[in-house]
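Purpose: get a first structural picture of the assembly so the mutagenesis plan has something to point at.
Setup: two entries, given in the order below. No constraints added.
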Amino acid sequence: MRTSMQILWLGVVSAVLGLCSSLCEAELVVIVSANSPVMALTENQVADLYLGRTSQLPGGAPALPIDLADDAANRANFYRIVCGKSPAQLRAYWSKLIFTGGGQPPREVADAEAMKRLVAGGANTIGYIDRSQLDPTVKAVLALH
Amino acid sequence: MFRPFSFHPLRALAVGALVMTWCVAPAYASDAASMFTLSGFGTLGATYSSLHTADYAGAAFEPYGAGASRNLDFADDSRVGVQLTARFTQQLSALIQVVSHNNYDNSFTPTLEWANISYAFTPDVSLRVGRIELPTFLTSDYREVGYANPWVRVPPELHDVVPITNSDGVDGSYRSHLGPVTNTLHLIYGKSTFHAVPGPIRVEGTGIFGAFDTVEYRALTTHVGYLRANVSVPFASGLPVAVYSAAASLDLARWFVQAEVARATVRGLTPGYIAGYATAGVRIGKFTPYVTYAVEHSLDRPVLSENINTGQRSASAGMRWDFAKNVDLKVQYDRVWTPAGSIGLFMNPQRGYQLGSGTHVATATLDFVF
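Result (structure tokens, whole complex):
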């Protein structure tokens, strides 16, 4: 009985800690070029673009979503928040599409700096970075919590 | 079996696509890297079945299986596929997929699964010509890609009722967006030739027409389909086929459920079946335990020659382990039952085999994609 109470307490404490660590995490923002006509995107629109369900930005321009490298922590965070999918789940998802000619996953870049450069230079490119990394070349169109 | 040198307009087109793919490459050498995508998938499997008087085969058209012919069958659930995709322009692309699996003649000769050229009029409207996948069921398109599926094999009770996977012809797809809902309508027309076991029975499907609709909303996917065709076998021709199917899948971060049901009839050839499955799994870190129940039920329609498959049921439990990037390991146990008087999906019955027998199947697979 005593042991099970201890396990229960351990569970409660770790749940509280887990909640804190997710709250205290740096905020991710979805970005487009500062020159882009796009002012805001919804979470669903971003999810559809990154899952290959649509290839157009609102207004009809062909979108070019950019991903961080496969092992980047922010990539996992991004997909967890936007699509509710884990990295392994996402790889299984894309293998369904790839092997039916249904599309290719977004292009990958090495780090947030490279992503920002690419997004800043392309009218229809979209990406995601930490809010702290924002600068005048790009603008945030969606904050992810 | 695919014979690359027999002339057939669609095959010529497929070969043309291949040639074009390789000839265009040097001309745009700088773009070649981004224009072409080479991908592949494969599964290495080992299958054991406790019933030693008949074979349990993982897929239709495999000549042998585990049980009678092989004690531990490495061919049953093993396969490898390679795909080359070429994107010539924003509108024009081509795809070729070659798969090596256990063929009806017991060879592993690679077969041309798909080869088509696609033209996208808009990002949401496209037309394809060539050998095209037949999306009869929710998982038909990627039935051989173990990594994309939760199980060691797609439930045979459902998939074996319509084992054709491709059609030579045309198809069009129209995708529309209604807020967060994506709808894809797919129409296909073509013909198909394939070999069925036992023995090299050549089956021809003509006038294949299919209409399929897929709805995606966040983690939910639904699929409904209608397929009609005429099949000809050596002893009868022009037998009408009709397939109606419906499926739903909910793929959440923590767990998933997927269920599918179909009614398939081939007049005179099979008694007709209602088949389906339901599967559910939970994700616990890198492990995904799952359970499945599948059933194939006979509609008892009249047949030209005796067909002793009057149904099969199975209950399965398994575990997927995503132990490394793009690789998974799965183990699965199946309990298979057949109703009295039915051979179910068993093959090569031996002396001592009794209709209505069931089996216990244990399978381990290693799936990979690249």
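The longest strand of chain B covers residues 201-217.
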